[in-house]
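The passage that follows is intended for readers who have already worked through the single-chain material. We present the inputs for a multi-component assembly, then the predicted structure in tokenized form, and finally a short commentary. You are encouraged to pause after the input and sketch how you expect the pieces to fit together before reading on.
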Amino acid sequence: MARVQTRVENALERSLPRADIVPARLHEAMRYAVLGGGKRVRPLLAHAAGEAAAGDIDEALLVRLDTVSCAVELIHAYSLVHDDLPCMDDDVLRRGKPTVHMEYDEASALLVGDSLQSLAFQLLAEQPLAAPAAQLEMVKALAVAIGSRGMAGGQAIDLASVGQSLTIPELELMHIHKTGALIRASVSLGAMCAEPMSQAVLAGLDQYARLIGLAFQVVDDVLDAESTTATLGKTAGKDAADDKPTYVKAMGLARAKALATGLRGDALAAIEGLGPRARRLAELADFIVLRKF
Amino acid sequence: MARVQTRVENALERSLPRADIVPARLHEAMRYAVLGGGKRVRPLLAHAAGEAAAGDIDEALLVRLDTVSCAVELIHAYSLVHDDLPCMDDDVLRRGKPTVHMEYDEASALLVGDSLQSLAFQLLAEQPLAAPAAQLEMVKALAVAIGSRGMAGGQAIDLASVGQSLTIPELELMHIHKTGALIRASVSLGAMCAEPMSQAVLAGLDQYARLIGLAFQVVDDVLDAESTTATLGKTAGKDAADDKPTYVKAMGLARAKALATGLRGDALAAIEGLGPRARRLAELADFIVLRKF
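Having made your guess, compare it with the prediction:
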């Protein structure tokens, strides 16, 4: 994992415009938003899915996976920057640092997010990742995953649900959009960098991604309820303070923890057929469910 | 022009998610931001460039041009929605209607813009527009045009220049980014929907686009200084009130008008070699420079 994280950090560093290029302040803020922080869960998933799909891995595949990883991580970073804005979650701390609108200003944070989204699509289109027709499919998959029927739609549902008491299926619908869609795209884009696979294998990977995406969110809710701001690197206890519906609120801490463990088991079962190729995906399931921050 | 505007309006209508699909309020706001307003200058340019590049035009080409037109118009609409936010230009009126954050709320306006950007890339990737490798070039061209070194970068330069006294070259640099990059992309994406052309023809079209983009901005500054809010459909006199650098401020009204006329002449000269194929591009140069709103 550390090896992939280092590769991806270097690739992100190279993909972002240098801070001395005009407009310099915007580029500096984009780098501030992306570099030097974050667990890089989506890149780790993309790499692990590529490895599972390919069986064996060579440097050319790793380079393609780095590109896909940068695209999904730039999207993730953009969503955090916009999500932290005063008109959204209004948060001041992210990854242990002031949020972008606190360190710079609101207008800059808005443009940072907008620019990171465009840069993600630029990366997906400018480097060879697959046969051109398949690569267009990858662009489309990312666009659908993050649009109004994916990630951005999930944030709209999230905003509309403040102060509401959601049922478990309603909570699930929100998270399938808000965090699940990009996690699924990370897995499928990683897999698409490798050789074409059978529909059965792809379906297994997608099922894994769906379950692990939900587990990720359940664990997030547990950590928000149980952690301190210092260990979390972002404001702890914020969901309750903002009166947001969470799994902890909907089912209590103990049942939420049991749900996460159950989802992890189901995710592992979904990739069992892949055998040892899926070892890193299995490790990531543990990483996601057993993490402390 | 009216025929193209109607085609594009219908294509936008079909491309946007229906207002009864979850999350319904977001989809309703996206439709509010895009439909039933605007001169559709960028779609008109894309169609005219496609016609100039192809020589003769058939329904299949028109459909491809509609798709490209939707993509650039969605990007334009997203940029207006974000530009109107309180942390940016803080405007309440757009195309004769309340701006999106006034009609809905700031968070919705943020997500509307984010979602429109994604939808533009989805459209460019999901319909056949050219050979797949050329289509990836189109995705890249749009991404570069609207990112931190294009449109979003121009907005950052714009924000940083409030209260500053810019030289004419500095003003030009700002507008080449802020409005010019998307106008150039509209022309080049339109041309790329047609047959591959000689480098000389492409260079002529790009020169036309560069000049007409600047002319567009100069006329915008003139209209902002000379019009009433009622004819403009957005708040008139806002540049001066906001202490923004404009061509009118930098060179006076008469010289700004003369500049626009000169740029129009240069733009027409750049496409002279294309002959009658470029008739619509020439008409658009007049439409842009002689418009009253």
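Commentary: Chain A touches chain B through 54 residues (CB under 8 Å). The mean pLDDT of chain A is 93. How closely did your sketch match?
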